[in-house]
Specification:
Immunoglobulin-like, 5-stranded mixed beta sheet, alpha+beta
Length: about 250
């Protein structure tokens, strides 16, 4: 009984020495440095982006109008596609993108009627292929199609056609179809006779951009610390010695 009691006291003494006498460098504390978190800015680097404006926003019929902007990210080897339409007028053309990301195209408006002209500038996205395009020749000229599925999206001309703001909305909806990675932006310009009050020109925010959520750091459970272990062992040792003396 005495030997067991003495062993408990010795064990407790050893633990107390380890706790209070040994140098602190002998105990390695868990690191509290948080792991680096990728920010939304770096996560979205390289994502396709496009912007566009019309200059001037209002011009007399016959005066040229320039559509210009910037396109970055994705595969721009084939350039961007600019859609300009109003009423029965539809002009779809591909424009190269400069090394600095800029693009521009000037349209001659001689013979065009006074109207609000809708402009949609389309970037082919990461695959470099226009997933939404318009048939410009042949029997189906004027039809907007999904080139990935071959399905008809809508008609600019002919039976069941849509025009102006309805066409702009239909085209915008087409870029949001599943599997389509093209992105776009839109604006308008007006051809109006001198003295006609200028209409409002709205430049739409770039659409189709991917928002990458900021990763959330995962909180892990802390391992059992040396202090907790030694303290617990010491209490157990005292308990053992006390029971041995009884």
């Amino acid at each position: 009984m005495t030997r067991l009691s003495s062993s408990g006291i010795v064990f407790c003494s050893f633990l107390l020495i380890a706790l209070f006498v040994l140098p602190a460098s002998g105990i390695v504390a868990p690191s509290t440095t948080a792991a680096p978190v990728t920010t939304a800015v770096s996560a979205t680097a390289g994502q396709p982006f496009i912007s566009a404006s019309a200059s001037p926003a209002t011009a007399p019929p016959g005066n040229p109008v320039t559509i210009y902007g910037a396109a970055t990210g994705g595969n721009l080897t084939a350039g961007v596609q600019i859609w300009v339409f109003a009423g029965n007028y539809v002009n779809v053309s591909t424009v190269p993108v400069s090394a600095d990301g800029s693009f521009s195209k000037t349209y001659q408006t001689t013979g065009l009627p006074a109207a609000t002209y809708y402009v949609i500038v389309q970037s082919p996205g990461k695959d470099g292929v226009l997933n939404i395009d318009m048939e410009s020749t042949g029997r189906y000229s004027g039809q907007v199609v999904n080139t990935k599925t071959g399905s008809l999206v809508f008609n600019f001309t002919g039976s069941g056609s849509v025009q102006d703001s309805a066409a702009a909305q239909a085209l915008s909806d087409a870029f949001n179809l599943p599997g389509v990675d093209d992105i776009y932006t839109k604006c308008t310009f007006q051809l109006a006779a001198p003295g006609t009050p200028a209409g409002s020109v709205t430049a739409a925010a770039p659409a189709g951009a991917t928002v990458v959520p900021t990763p959330v750091a995962t909180t892990k459970k802390s391992p059992l610390s040396p202090f907790t272990f030694i303290t617990g062992a010491g209490i157990a040792g005292f308990a053992l010695a006390w029971r041995s003396r009884r």
